[in-house]
Amino acid sequence: MKKDIVIVNPRSNIAIATLWTKKEIVAERLGNLIDKVNIVGTLYSMYGINFVIHTLDQNPVIDTLIVFGADLSKSGEALVELFVNKKIVPGLKLLWNISEIKEILDKVKVVDLRAAFKKGDWKKLFDAVKSHYNPASNAHRRRLGLEIIEPIGVSSWRHQLSGHFLFEYSLFRTWIKLLRTILMYGYVKDTEYGEKQKQMLNVMAVIGVFSKKVQLEKEFFEYFSQDDFKFHAESLLNPSESSKVSYTYGQRLFEHPEGKNQFEYFVDKLIEKNYTRRAIMVTWSHKNDRLSDSPPCLLLIQGDLSGEYYNHTAYFRSHDIYSAWPINAYGQIVLASKIAEHISKRTGKEIKIGYVTIISSSAHIYEHDWKNAEKVLEKHFKEVSKAFVTDPRGNFIIKVENDEIVVEHRDWEGTIVQVYRDRDPVRLLGSMALDSLLSMPSHAAYLAREIFRAYFALKEGKDYIQDKV
Q: Would you call 256 a catalytic residue per the annotation?
């Protein structure tokens, strides 16, 4: 993993962790005070605390670490708990034992200004830098010679795969299935952060909402906090909130440098012509993002209005499936709900959410999360795989009639779409496969099993009853 830091004054005893806030923003706001700071850097994840400790070990002149920024992933909370209370919070995976880093924890003072940042109180930061600046204070701290040796051992698919479709009604089950897919079929390659990843290209996850209120399953909260979901969802709808963090989605949707209020245009377009294919919002700014170190991951949102349902598609150029997908997917459902609400109010018609589709061009899991993802699967995959998910393409009634196997393909309302007949099960399945009748492999396996059960019943002169085992 590459350290996202900038070194200003190597003689200073002060470092600043900006968490999810851009380090450049904090450095700029400090003005001339920046000369009193040794290092300014981000801290996006708890795992990044290892790199903070490693940086402190390499720079023994630092005895004060100021935490000032948006704490979206609780990395700041974990950092403060570790240094102040010597406590390892759930989810923090240290590369060393506490005893090995005790000298750093004891001799580096952490100044927690997260609350001040939340209030927009920059003066607290300025005062902290002034009061703690003392470059001659800490020549006594020795270097421990810490090394970052990250575990390696997850195999790579032999070549890069592209294209995967997943349909679900549950966010949690979708996440579990995506983790399994990436760990199994991901191609190991480098990233721009100096760390390995397992990647699969163009992964499409479709969530069938259909007017139901999507509940965050309680299992999520073992790995994420409710505030993580809430803050991200709110930031999508609030440009002033999202301007504090690296990926300014709310700002780009409502105050885009070129597109201005895209949300308003988006809703207007759908109301003006409910058959439009031009309801689009784009987060990318050619002016700001082409040379940026942290361009937006969410690039495009497209809306479709079909009957009483609003269907929502979001395209991500880069998607951290382990750490970010659940929060991003929930945020898109909340955004879709807000769009449907606006259309309903302005047209007087009740518009419900239909499908929310998340397309991840680069769906990946970072190396430091491979083992974490495996543990999640060990705990949940078996149960998740048992859940029955109805196919949006309908269902099948299978029977034996007039010395033939008969398969009726019916839609959700029970209307017959197509009827297939044949005595030969292989030929029957072949003709059905050509029509791409099924969305899910598990349903294809079920259909094959039942058709062969019908075939053997016909062959042996026995009665056949679907689903009877």
A: no
